[in-house]
């Protein structure tokens, strides 16, 4: 079993702006925690540094006029047409190096796909990737270039069958839209229900169009869905569909904004529940291209993605965080354990979340499973 960790120190140079919830420093922090655990020096793991993707590679999904606006935004000053493409003050700010970092993220996920497709490794993890909201001609939800779509298109061009599994707290709408009429790419997204959370989509009735009916799968969840409810729901939906679809490669978006302390969402997973879901994806995937995603509590991001990378390598970690890391992590770092303390939700909230999830599973069984002979 060979693996690759795809990362660049260059990500530290970019900044969405002081008020923006997406903090680029989460990436360096994650790398340092992996390093402190010895996970950047594993014998069967390669450390790979991405190059920025070529514009032509990004143009395989994104429209040229949109890419021209992204390029023009690289100065940090918004071009006149920016607003027409979702750019401007708010979620998708124009900042210096925007096009550079968008190309680097795309390059990282394309490198991860290439390493897996060529057989150099079985599993690759690019945790700066997973920017699943970007649309063909529009920035959305902190995402400018949709690197999961580019990775999937690249794997498809090499004749590989791809299933996409998205466990971010937000619906993977950009990836779903890209393959909505395509029966050769199965997309599965679990997320907080769209009537409560951005981007407002991802209802269970969204199952695909035309030949693609049954190949877009959505499992919306109630606020306060905790790890036990989440994992039971995941288990009821994801393994049967992956088993029936028989992908060559799974592309996974591993956002950790599903965590109970995430400031932007209302799900209630803990790091150990997230890690169990990742471990299941690793088991189910014949080959794996894993990407990051959302995550706005930095301590959760570093711990969760470190645990995810350990799972991809079959390494069990000491739950006590390495002291050297904790001492260097700064004043805002309080966690001492990789895992979260047990915290029981009020029973009525658990029941409500479980009943809602059970109804979604029933609907998936009714609306999607028949297309897969299940
Ligand atoms: Zn998210």
Molecular structure report:
The protein is of the alpha/beta class and about 375 residues long. About 35% of the residues lie in helices and about 10% in strands. It contains eleven helices and eight strands. An eight-stranded parallel beta sheet has the order 2-1-3-8-7-4-5-6, with helices on both faces. α1 crosses α9 (about 300-310) and α7 (about 225-245) packs parallel to α11 (about 345-365). Bound molecules: zinc ion (ZN).
Tell me the strand order in the biggest sheet: 2-1-3-8-7-4-5-6
Which blocks of ≥5 consecutive residues have pLDDT under 50?
A: none
Q: What structural category do the secondary elements indicate?
A: alpha/beta
User: Which hetero compounds are present in the coordinates?
Assistant: zinc ion
Beta strand %: 5-15%
The helical percent reads 25-40%
**Distance linking N and C termini:** 31 Å
Rounded Rg: 19 Å
Q: Determine the number of helices (DSSP H or I, runs of at least 4 residues).
A: 11
Please count the beta strands (DSSP E, at least 2 residues each).
8
Name the average pLDDT.
Answer: 97
The largest pleated sheet is described as:
8 strands, parallel
Order of helices and strands: EHEHHHEHEHEEHEHEHHH
Query: Per the principal axes of the C-alpha atoms, what is the gross shape?
Result: globular
């Amino acid at each position: 079993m060979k693996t690759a960790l795809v990362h660049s120190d260059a990500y530290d140079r970019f900044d969405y702006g002081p008020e923006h919830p997406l903090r680029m420093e989460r990436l360096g922090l994650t790398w340092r925690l992996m390093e402190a655990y010895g996970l950047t020096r594993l014998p069967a793991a390669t450390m790979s540094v991405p190059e920025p993707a070529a514009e032509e590679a990004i143009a395989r999904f994104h429209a040229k006029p949109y890419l021209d606006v992204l390029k023009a935004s690289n100065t940090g000053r918004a071009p006149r047409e920016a607003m027409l493409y979702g750019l401007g003050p708010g979620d998708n700010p124009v900042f210096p190096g925007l096009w550079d970092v968008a190309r680097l993220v795309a390059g990282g996920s394309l490198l991860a796909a290439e390493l897996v497709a060529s057989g150099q490794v079985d599993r690759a993890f690019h945790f700066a990737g997973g920017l699943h909201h970007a649309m063909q001609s529009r920035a959305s939800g902190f995402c400018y270039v949709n690197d999961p779509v580019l990775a999937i298109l690249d794997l498809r061009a090499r004749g590989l069958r791809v299933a996409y599994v998205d466990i971010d707290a937000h619906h993977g709408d950009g990836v779903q839209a890209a393959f909505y009429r395509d029966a050769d790419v199965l997309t599965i997204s679990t997320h907080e229900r769209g009537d409560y959370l951005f981007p407002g989509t991802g209802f269970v009735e969204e199952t695909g169009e035309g030949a693609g009916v049954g190949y877009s799968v959505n499992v919306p969840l109630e606020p306060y869905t905790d790890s036990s409810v989440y994992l039971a729901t995941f288990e009821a939906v994801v393994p049967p569909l992956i088993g029936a679809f028989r992908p060559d490669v799974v592309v996974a978006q591993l956002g950790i904004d599903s965590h109970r302390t995430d400031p932007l969402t209302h799900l209630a997973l803990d790091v150990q529940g997230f890690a169990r879901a990742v471990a299941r994806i690793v088991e189910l995937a014949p080959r794996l291209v894993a990407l990051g995603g959302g995550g706005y509590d930095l301590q959760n991001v570093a711990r969760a993605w470190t645990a995810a990378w350990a799972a991809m390598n079959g390494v069990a970690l000491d739950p006590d965080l390495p002291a050297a890391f904790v001492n260097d992590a700064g004043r805002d770092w309080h966690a001492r354990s990789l895992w979260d303390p047990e915290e029981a939700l009020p029973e009525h909230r658990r029941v409500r979340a479980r009943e809602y999830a059970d109804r979604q599973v029933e609907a998936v069984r009714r609306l999607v499973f028949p297309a897969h002979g299940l």
